[in-house]
Amino acid sequence: MADSWMEDKRMTSSRILDFLAAERPDGPCLVIDLEVVRRNFLRLAEAFPATGIYYAVKANPAPEILDLLASLDCCFDAASVAEIDMALAAGATPERISYGNTIKKERDIARASALGVRLFAVDCMEEVEKIARQAPGARVFCRVLTDGEGAEWPLSRKFGCHTDMAAKVLERAHGLGLDACGLSFHVGSQQCDLAAWDRAVGDAKKVFLALGEKNIRLSMLNLGGGFPARYLKDVPSTLAYAEAIHSAMTRHFGNQLPATIVEPGRGIVGDAGVIKTEVVLISRKSDADDTRWVYLDIGKFGGLAETMDEAIRYPIRTPRDGSEAAPCIIAGPTCDSADVLYEKTPYALPLSLQIGDELLIEATGAYTSTYASVAFNGFAPLPTYIVGGKSDAALAA
Ligand SMILES: *Cc1c(COP(=O)(O)O)cnc(C)c1O
Questions:
Q1: Is 35 helix (H, G, I), strand (E, B) or coil?
Q2: Which residues sit with their C-beta closer than 6 Å to ligand 1?
């Protein structure tokens, strides 16, 4: 079985294939190749040479990933005190950590401040007031709403405020003695429409102007995440993103460019990971119905939550690829009827697929291990194995 994986190295690195062939881990698992994480980070750093890169820890907080990124001088976007602790444990200094969640308990702001974190996201007056009380003088940036259009995993509505309110929020921050340093937005995760940044940068410029009239000079624009992993469809290159963003910045800001940061999550770890899974059952609902149901030992509750609404379609490799394939419904193993991965748009898998076959779900390095439930139906959380990195880390040391 492993042999036919070996023939197809399109997305899964040979290090991951070798690991699976040698270790044969039982049950579903995620395998991360640190060399791919390193390559993705360096590619972004090269494409955005003047921009601070803050890895969105939530995408995959495996300590080995955070250690590697910290050693490459990456900064971190944390959403909680626990994520701040993880970034610190990886060796990041507090100046390299942004507390980017707009929804924070006041005592967590105090804890972050005590740990030395000085950069906070806000999107309303109430949050500004908490920060002014618990982290006096800290730097704050205000998140503005985007429409999330074009994103496969939109983040609109819940985070950010209207540009008119952003100006007021930052004015208030300034009045309370905080360093109102700039703005942020997130154009939506897996954003393949390069024009999304142009719209958002244009909106940000309006707030820069409005505050300039009040003698508050913003100095930073946080361009968010949204950089894609390659799933079934091709995606624009990292350089294409850099060019689109650079031209949006110069179109709206001319030669008065603010400092910029980006917060990639998926774009750094998405295609660095592969989930190994096993076919538990292949069945039909009646003799007359030839739709196959293929049940795997991983589903929505085991780490594949981003198949919600079939938003993210992962590439799936089988040991029988190349033989005749037909559409089927793919579902997870739990006793919840929502645990169906692909049904509205059925997935083609080989007709010769057998119970017990092991499949590879590719580009699953982001938003999987942390989306696994603790023990729904008694299924264990998704284990992560790490390959690559050690030899080079040893060389660098
Ligand atoms: C999740 C998140 C990110 C990362 O988004 P990707 O699309 O995975 O790059 C960046 N910034 C914030 C504030 C986030 O919540």
A1: helix
A2: 56, 58-59, 77, 100, 186, 189, 224-227, 263-267
The pick from 142, 235, 263, 306 for probing ligand 1's pocket by mutation, whose C-beta has the most ligand atoms within 8 angstroms, reads 263
CATH 3.20.20.70 fits 100-264, yes or no: no
User: What percent of the chain has pLDDT above 70?
Assistant: 95
Contact criterion met (CB below 8 Å) for 96 and 52: no
From 29, 192, 328, 335, the catalytic residue: 335
Task: Name 143's bridge partners.
Answer: 184
What is the whole-number distance in angstroms between the Cα of residue 270 and the centre of ligand 1? 12
What's the rounded Cα separation, in Å, for the pair 304 and 232?
A: 16
pLDDT score recorded for residue 10 = 60
SS3 of residue 79 by DSSP: coil
pLDDT tens digit string along 220-252? 999 999 999 999 999 999 999 999 999 999 999
The atom number, within ligand 1, closest to the CA of 58 reads 1
63-112 per-position pLDDT tens digit: 999 999 999 999 999 999 999 999 999 999 999 999 999 999 999 999 99
Q: Is 328 an active-site residue?
A: no
Both tokens of 305, joined, read: 């939550």
Q: Which atom of ligand 1 is nearest to the CA of 102?
A: 13
CA 55 – ligand 1 centroid, Å:
8
Domain boundaries, the chain: 4-31+270-396, 100-264
Task: Report the run of H or E that residue 294 belongs to, with start and end.
Answer: strand 292-296
For residue 155, what pLDDT is reported? 72
Residues in the chain: 397
Any idea which architecture 4-31+270-396 has in CATH? Beta Barrel (2.40)
Pocket test for ligand 1, best of 141, 189, 235, 261 (most atoms within 8 A of CB): 189
Domains 4-31+270-396 and 100-264 share a fold: no
